[in-house]
Design a protein that fits this description.
single chain, Alpha-Beta Plaits, alpha+beta, two-stranded antiparallel sheet
């Protein structure tokens, strides 16, 4: 098994993520592309000391961006995990 720091990159704080945190006790994480749901669950429980109920993952494609010329490139894509915590648990963001 890999160490937890090699699975979870960062906690994503966006408007949608904030709504999910407040309403449904769900947190968004940016994770490494080769991480699976079992590894993500174990890593979040180990890093933050909470109980994870469910993990959903999705891959975000990079956006198409135009360069200074008429050529196009792409921003980097990434994998994101939506982690649902058990009732009563929360992650302190400070």
């Amino acid at each position: 098994m890999r160490e937890s720091q090699r699975i979870v990159k960062t906690l994503v704080v966006t408007e949608k993520g904030t709504r999910l945190m407040e309403a449904e006790n769900k947190y968004l994480f940016k994770v490494f592309d080769d991480a699976n749901k079992v590894e993500i669950k174990r890593a979040v429980e180990e890093l933050f000391g909470v109980s994870v109920e469910k993990v959903n993952t999705l891959r975000r494609k990079g956006k198409r961006k135009r360069e200074r010329t008429m050529r196009y490139g792409r921003t980097a894509g990434f994998k994101r995990a939506v982690v649902t915590l058990k009732a009563g648990d929360s992650i302190d963001l400070t």
